[in-house]
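We modelled the chain as a single entity of 529 amino acids. Its sequence is:
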Amino acid sequence: MKFRKFIFTAVSVLTLATLAGCLRPSMPSETVTTSGDSLPYTGEKIEVKFWTGFGSSVTSALTPLFTRFESENPDIRVLYESKQGYPNLQQAINGSISTNTYPHIANGYPDHLVGYINANILVNIGNPTNYINHPQYGVNIDEYNADYMAEIHALSDQATYGLPFNKSTEVMIANQSFFDAAKKKDASIFIPKTWQDLAVVGPKLKAVAKNNGWFGKLVKKDGTAVPKPENFDPNLKPDIAVDMSLVSEEQFIPFSWDSASNFFITTIKQWGAAYTEKGSTIQNGYIRFQEEPHRTKTLAALAYFKQLYDDGIIGLPDNFGQALYSSVPFKEGKLVLTISSSAGVGENLPGGTTDYPFDLSINAIPYNGDLVAAKSVIAQGTNLAIFAVGRGADPKAQAERLAAWRLLRFLTYEANYEFGKATSYFPVLDPTKIDPNSQRYQDYLMYSQFLQQTDGTEREKVIRKTALLQADVYMNPDKKWIKFVDPGFLGSSEIRNTVESVMAELFKGKTPEQVLNDVVVKLARYVQS
């Protein structure tokens, strides 16, 4: 199968989020060491504190893995805590630095880890601790996807701060039932592949809904509209394509993008502009979109999307009364195309929100048809890192760190395919490098078989569709997609957090020049002199 060739060769992925600056606390000078095959501390059951920014669905996928881990490692107890979002997680860790109360393990984007490295609170899992080559709990580092590891190595030339864990990209989710019904009334309607396509088909989507009386009605598969019965009609359900009973003409905006920062970063890259550049070390980096030739290209991209917004074709979650995501209005039929993290596709399933659910399809995000060579999509995801809890020479601290390493190893090395199957994240191991006699290889075969299945829950089906899109489209060299990653450096998350407002301010009425000038003023410290 083609996907077997491509799915596990993804480029390194990162999402740039907020990074709060913090002073380095005084840290112990002792070298952290292991003690061969045995733990250096033989007291009570060792507790490992594990913090993440995951929501309830990913936490639910982790829970049985913790149960399995504790069963296989009865000397360890996992104390898991979700901080309900990566900004909250980063804030909690930054707030714990002065008191040395950070967790044993946490997940984080590279620009988060940069801050922790700068604060001197992460454990180097290579030398001198050498957990990677531990005689009993080591890993074959070559089995991890090389591009994911390149992201880790970019954090330091001399140390290894963590391993890849959960990886994703962005996809465009379409209300396939809406499009199928729309084609019955206008055969020229299609799911856009380029932004130029969206400019053409967007007005047609609005027109077909208006001209055929779809707003406030149930839309049948033949494109006709009927009033929604006061009570659910099971005999009517097979004929219904989509429920638009909650949608008015004024509310209908065909397209939305969950992440406003990704919207800005991705589209300026698709117009040929640069975003940021790392300096000689992680201590410095610069914005590039404000300088020529990038400024002209950035302004062109902003002008293009401002026109689409003014035409009522595109919006952001805020346009639908949502703070972060477009999934709720998507399920209500108020939009029919949404760009979301591949890890969040299941949140857009209509099941349970309507008596007349629609079918969805998973598609590549649109690209700039006038500059195909810049066909770009962001790659993103977090890594797991171990924190320097306790004093380095203390036996209890060493026992806790080794126990933390065993959990990190389990999640990234032994159970990562199982985690990927339960979520929409892509596995981090390269099957071409896995020992064919290992259980990991058997897990890979299980995952491959899972992707070929056609039955299962609706959530399982969209997980498979998403993984296959990654394999057959984004990772297929013939499709020529650029999976871009922006470098992490001190301040990179502040830059990302600041540019998040660009598209919203543009859509509120400012000109491209105004929003660009405003953001450059806010980020003046990152303009290279």
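As a brief sanity check on the tokenised model: Residues 2-167+380-461 form a domain with the D-Maltodextrin-Binding Protein; domain 2 fold (CATH 3.40.190.10). The chain has 17 helices and 15 strands.
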